[in-house]
């Protein structure tokens, strides 16, 4: 009578061994870090949205994410960085199709994105904000206000968390305008094509500090969305291909060491981030959980 049980246990043991073997086989085939070390080259994708990533007047890539990447990359053995510009909504495809190795664009971690890419541990946590025409003619002080005012149109960056959040709040697609970058979204507000531009708070603060708002202003006060709906939105990180776990582990180790020191805080302050926007102890697994 005991033989079927013994047989079952044997099968379960064999299955467990096969599962372990499969994991070890995948790890053995993961040459993402080795290939980068052999070539010395790390290809980094970015999109123009200050202060996360943008170009200086001389055409040099800078911003919170590229500059942080410049500090981390040598720590994992990268000797040369190659930058590739793309629209924000195209960055994940660029990564998946092998044209870049990492996304450095202030990308927020979401469960949907985490099904496509592997995120590093968080490097910041930001709040939501809104740019409106001068005088705030529609009295917009929250995303909910935009929903309650028929005809009000809100712009958001293509593929950005703000666009997804507005859809979840119930803003009709006909009143949600997709902009490839922050400058285009700002122009939409200035010309009346859009009544507001939804952006993260550091982006808006950065534009205000550099007198880049033109005919727009920051909606103040601005009520944050319901925490129950917002969930873990606002945590930003670098993104890697799902299969490149060796490269990700090396990056996370170097990043952890860097975030513990004063150099990280000085860098973040340069781009309008405050100590309150430090990610704290929150881990990517918590944020990416559906």
In short:
The protein has 290 residues and is of the alpha/beta class.
Annotation, overall tally of beta strands: 13
Domains (count)? 2
Please tell me what the overall shape is: globular
The CATH class of the largest domain is identified as Alpha Beta
Mean pLDDT: 89
Number of contiguous helices: 13
**Could you give the distance between the termini?**
45 Å
- Uncertain parts: 14-27
CATH superfamily placement of the largest domain: Periplasmic binding protein-like II
Summarize the helix and strand pattern as letters.
Answer: HHEEEHEHEHEEEHEHEHEHEHEHHH
Helix content: 40-55%
CATH topology name of the largest domain, in short, is D-Maltodextrin-Binding Protein, domain 2
Using only CA atoms, what is the Rg? 22 Å
| Residues in β-strands, percent | 15-25%
CATH architecture of the largest domain: 3-Layer(aba) Sandwich
What class do helices, strands and sheet pairing give?
A: alpha/beta
Query: What about the largest sheet?
Result: 6 strands, mixed
Structural key phrases:
290 residues, alpha/beta, D-Maltodextrin-Binding Protein, domain 2, 2 domains, 6-stranded mixed β-sheet, 5-stranded mixed β-sheet, 13 helices, 13 strands, 42% helix
What's the SSE blueprint?
Elements: H1 3-29, H2 32-39, E1 41-46, E2 54-55, E3 61-62, H3 64-72, E4 80-85, H4 91-96, E5 102-108, H5 111-114, E6 117-119, E7 124-125, E8 128-133, H6 143-148, E9 154-157, H7 161-169, E10 176-179, H8 182-191, E11 196-200, H9 201-209, E12 216-218, H10 227-230, E13 235-241, H11 245-259, H12 262-270, H13 284-288
Parallel strand pairs: 1-4, 1-5, 9-10, 9-11
Antiparallel strand pairs: 2-3, 5-13, 6-13, 7-13, 8-11, 8-12
Helix pairs in contact: 2-11
